[in-house]
TrEMBL record:
Note describing how the cofactor binds: Binds 1 zinc ion per subunit.
Swiss-Prot/TrEMBL cofactor(s): Zn(2+)
Catalytic activity: N(6)-acetyl-L-lysyl-[protein] + NAD(+) + H2O = 2''-O-acetyl-ADP-D-ribose + nicotinamide + L-lysyl-[protein]
Biological function: NAD-dependent protein deacylase. Catalyzes the NAD-dependent hydrolysis of acyl groups from lysine residues.
Places the protein is found: Mitochondrion matrix
Top-level taxonomic group: Eukaryota
Keywords per UniProt: Metal-binding, Mitochondrion, NAD, Transferase, Zinc
Deacetylase sirtuin-type domain segment(s): 30-306
Sites where the protein binds Zn(2+): 163, 166, 214, 217
Protein name: NAD-dependent protein deacylase
Active-site residues, as the UniProt record annotates them: 155
Originating species: Psylliodes chrysocephalus
Length: 306
């Protein structure tokens, strides 16, 4: 009996320690109030079809940092600069550097799991039939892992790799196995995690790294994500626009809307007089043009409503 109680206590301590570790990238925020819960519940109850727009602020609760949060965001903690699209295209050493760091970071990044927010959105879509589509700025695949069906990945997915020459698509896990074969000297273990799967590694390790090439045509391989300086494909933009028009409400979760690709969704919804609710810690680009803003942690409120 005593041994059982000791084991249970030890297990609870491990769970609490793990949860604290995952939440270390969540910025400080106010506690959710019952009034906040009722506001969000009424918004959802009054909506027939909701377009859910998500950002890095929901993945921080799965242990993946965002870029811009005060104190805990990637920009606040490091001098890290995301890969630029044109640099990736032009320079082989930039591609070598990117793939070497991504190879090492892939293990911990790909093991991240959906949290209560992702599952709540899935319930709202699949069980309640309230969601027209989930538009996510995240490339971490967590909505699909949670079971959501109609997901538009605005900035692509780190789980797909595309050949820039023949346009063949490959599974990122397959590319990882191929990289292991050609880079036997590389250690693929890391405790670091970033929004794009990138990590810091020594320069000498980068210099000896062999980037992947397309198995079909030997062309340049690139993760199927929108790098900084690149544009969201026009057909994807149009798909989002059509979904906004077909929806009567827009629920924004965990994004400051700093990038225009997401902010223009708000502008369209305002122009079409849709109901809009934003749940986010801190200010967003849309605060002055929307009627309902709830400044709390998404994980504290969304599961209570969905």
């Amino acid at each position: 009996m005593v041994k059982t109680l000791i084991f249970q206590c030890f297990h609870l301590i491990k769970i609490r320690k793990y949860s604290t570790e995952l939440l270390k990238f969540v910025p400080k925020c106010s506690e959710v109030s019952e009034a906040d819960v009722q506001l969000l519940r009424k918004f959802i109850d009054d909506s027939r079809k909701i377009l859910v727009l998500t950002g890095a602020g929901i993945s921080t609760e799965s242990g993946i940092p965002d870029y811009r949060s005060e104190e805990v965001g990637l920009y606040a903690r490091t001098n890290h600069k995301p890969i630029q699209y044109q640099e990736f295209l032009k320079y082989s050493h930039i591609r070598q550097r990117y793939w070497a760091r991504n190879f090492v970071g892939w293990g911990i990044f790909s093991k991240r799991q959906p949290n209560a927010i992702h599952f709540s959105i899935r319930n709202l879509e699949c069980d309640l039939g309230k969601v027209s589509a989930v538009v996510t700025q995240n490339v971490d695949n967590l909505h699909f892992k949670a079971g959501s069906q109609n997901v538009i990945e605005l900035h692509g997915s780190a789980y797909r790799v595309i050949c820039l020459k023949c346009k063949s698509i490959y599974n990122r896990h397959y590319i990882q196995e191929e990289l292991k074969k050609t880079n036997l000297h590389m250690c693929e273990e890391s405790t670091m995690v970033r929004p794009d799967g990138d990590v810091d590694i020594p320069q000498d390790a980068i210099q000896g790294f062999k980037p992947p090439v397309c198995p079909s045509c030997s062309g340049i391989l690139k993760p199927d994500i929108i790098f900084f300086g690149d544009n969201v494909p026009k057909e994807r933009v149009q798909e989002v626009r059509n979904t906004v028009t077909k929806s009567d409400s827009l629920l924004v979760l965990g994004t400051s809307l700093s990038v225009f690709s997401s902010y223009r969704i708000i502008l369209q919804a305002v122009e079409e007089k849709k109901n809009i609710c934003v749940v986010n810690i801190g200010r967003t680009r849309a605060d002055d043009i929307i009627d309902l803003k709830i400044s709390v942690r998404c994980g504290d409120i969304v599961p209570k409503v969905c």
